[in-house]
Amino acid sequence: TDSGLPRYAANLNSPQQEAVLTTEGPVLMLAGAGTGKTAALTARLAHLVAMRKAWPSEILCVTFTNKAAREMRERVGRHIGDAVEGMPWLGTFHSIGAKMLRRHAELVGLQSNYTIIDTDDQLRLLKQLIRDQDLDEKRWPPRQLAGLIDRWKNRGLNPADLDAAENEAFANGRGQEFYTLYQERLKALNACDFGDLLLHMLNILRREPEVLKMYQQRFKYILVDEYQDTNQVQYLWLRLLAQERKNICVVGDDDQSIYSWRGAEVANILRFEKDFPGAKVVKLEQNYRSTPHILAAASGLIDANSQRIGKTLWTQFEGGDQVRVIGVWDAPEEARRVGEEAERLEREGASLDQVALLVRAQYQTREFEDRFIQIGLNYRIIGGFRFYERSEIRDALAYLRVIAQPRDDLAFERIYNQPKRGLGAKTLEKMFQHARATDMPLAAASLQLADSDELPKRAAGTIAALMRDFLRWKELAEQTTPAELLRTVMDECGYTAMLQAEKSAESAGRLENLSELARAMEEYETLGDFLEHVSLVMDNERAGDGEKLTIMTMHAAKGLEFDNVFLPGWEEGVFPSQRSLDEGGLASLEEERRLAYVAITRARKRCTILYAANRRIYGQWTSSIPSRFVAELPDDHVTRETTMTGGASLWQANWSESEDPFAHVSTSRPERSSQRGPGWQRALTSGYDTKQLRLKESTRSAASFAAQPRSDIAVG
Ligand code: ATP
Ligand code: MG
């Protein structure tokens, strides 16, 4: 369009332009994925500055991630040049909150040089408090309290605001007391946590009329991306700040609300017109990102959700591939397949930077990382660590290294007090001294030291017990498989119990990672073989610059786009996640479906979905059921293939027609492994029983999906 419009708006379609040019009054852009919401918001920002509607410092612009803020800054910079340097209020809620709070810290009893503590510090603090109050921290884990406090802060609740039910949620009615103690402790340390960055500022805006007025006048314009994922405290903030001028423009998509587990409330976007009467509502329906098949597949899927507004999406693009759904035999084949496809794309001229692998849970990355390293395919992990660098994996490996090689001082040092056994730095120092003096490895020296009276009795006893454990594990290593050894060690050393006690989503993820580590070990005969594999993999991790395939969670991929997207693990219990199935509610399932919608709509040109027929869970082959989302994809836009001959019809069976495609073969349902395994096995397997059928290796072919394993991947 050569409309004489400024450059930043010239290429936009007319509803987008409307959203850009309607500078005054509330504007709501509620539209589907890839329709150019972020693009329009960015143009609006450029427009406000270019038209001198406001100085850059008078615009509040909120993005969901720091990366998104950087990108927006860069794009706006292209249009308005240096002025973008002076945009102090472009960022995430947290970064903006931190900046504001620096200026008003004294109003909440802090100094402006306050520190922002991280999760570790927070947990340590809470632990102290719990101990000080003589509470059993096993019964009332710090992490649980941290989760509660976080939830309260997300909802804008101060200690005094808690109702009876919330108060009851910790230590039999002591929630409020602990929340209060924690806030006092933070104040004494001149510190605050992430939640405080928003809550303190909300308190200030509510209690200090002059401050509120100042910001209401300063922010001539407010812009918010991904509004569907704002939580209560963020919502209250915006409502206060926008109340005076009402020049607030929010954009979002109710179908992409995927953070309710972090307190986000999709209701915020749905009631925008009530909060700001007379709001201009802009609908965008043209998608500029994806091919028609990808778009139709995603739209068809999200149609199954009952709780949605419903939107039309169309595209001018023509042609393009259908979404591919590939059923494979097992996880290694799935990883092999993605590796092959990525290499093929590369050969065809695609850049690896335009290839993404989006997983539901962190533990899923392991199989792919192993494979990519093996074939020399460069990858990066966004928003997390590479599998073997995660702390729980390093801890587990350290135990195994000490067992395999008692002279491994570094490994021993890592875990001598992990999980916590009450051995401090002093003890470690003594152990080191003794090791040096006697020229013995640390572990052996420690054992000898425990026998002397150099150490306090308690420490000596603890070390002796630990060394006895190691001796037993070393014997066990001769008799059992590496994977079995790992499970035993993690249970017996208390690591499993430690994670279970934490009762948080994060610790659940760490348990999943450990379980995945055991799965990786199933393929190795001896502990030595496996450890060698790991050191080779770790050594390989120094992949240089150049193009890289991106691995990340679906959650982290929100707002991004890639030419080629791979989506593995579409099986019941993986995606939708077991947790969402266990919770059982429609709401959690619909949130999983929205996540699937987000995932598919990241793809520009090609989208490949995979599921495996078998997963190894605790050394036991388990047949998995393809995700219900696979069946919900509209047939006209999807090609379905399976690498298993003869099984195709069953794999294509419509999930919704028969709740359990294996119902007819359930005669040989073996005992649940949750009744066998101890500790962490039980904790993890218990979740898998709802929908999954466990088939023993021997019964697998009989129970058959009419498919024979391909000989090259036949399982031994
Ligand atoms: P999501 O819901 O995933 O966040 P979105 O609605 O924010 O998506 P954008 O990321 O802004 O969509 O845009 C998607 C793609 O379409 C981008 O590559 C963008 O450059 C392009 N695009 C946006 N508007 C137009 C337009 N009017 N003409 C051509 N391309 C456009
Ligand atoms: Mg966007």
TrEMBL record:
EC number of the protein: 5.6.2.4
PROSITE patterns: UVRD_HELICASE_ATP_BIND (PS51198), UVRD_HELICASE_CTER (PS51217)
Enzyme class, broadest EC rank: isomerase
Residue ranges of every copy of the UvrD-like helicase ATP-binding domain listed in the record: 10-291
Domain spans labelled UvrD-like helicase C-terminal: 292-559
Molecular function as annotated in GO: 3'-5' DNA helicase activity; ATP binding; DNA binding; hydrolase activity
PANTHER family per the UniProt record, alphabetical: ATP-DEPENDENT DNA HELICASE SRS2 (PTHR11070:SF2), UVRD / RECB / PCRA DNA HELICASE FAMILY MEMBER (PTHR11070)
Function description: Has both ATPase and helicase activities. Unwinds DNA duplexes with 3' to 5' polarity with respect to the bound strand and initiates unwinding most effectively when a single-stranded region is present. Involved in the post-incision events of nucleotide excision repair and methyl-directed mismatch repair.
Protein known as: DNA 3'-5' helicase
Source organism per UniProt: Allopontixanthobacter sediminis
